[in-house]
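Continuing the batch. This is chain 6 of the set; chains 1 through 5 are on the previous pages. Same settings as before, nothing changed between runs. Recording input and output for traceability.
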Amino acid sequence: MDSVFRLLLRLILIPAGYVVAICAGTAVILFGQWRIGTLFATAPESPDTVVMLVDALFTAGFLVVFLVSTMWLVAAIGVLFSEMFAVRSWMFHVANGAASAFVGAQLFPTL
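Output for chain 6:
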């Protein structure tokens, strides 16, 4: 019974962790790389400008999720491999992240 509970817990925790990693990566790209926070800081006091900036933020979020999904799919292969064979090494996960970033950079070189 204990092994069934652990299996069900893994079936819930692994996809939840994957979704959290996707959200964290998207937030880093949006706020770190594109510096959207500086757009809000330099915005004039016009309400229309603020609405346009918020619209750009949400549009950019969907665009990033769409374009970078290829990197997440490559990373998912490594995650599935590590879960099947119980690979818990941090070096494996770092190499998996580097490989997925390399594939994404090769697919979208002009971004």
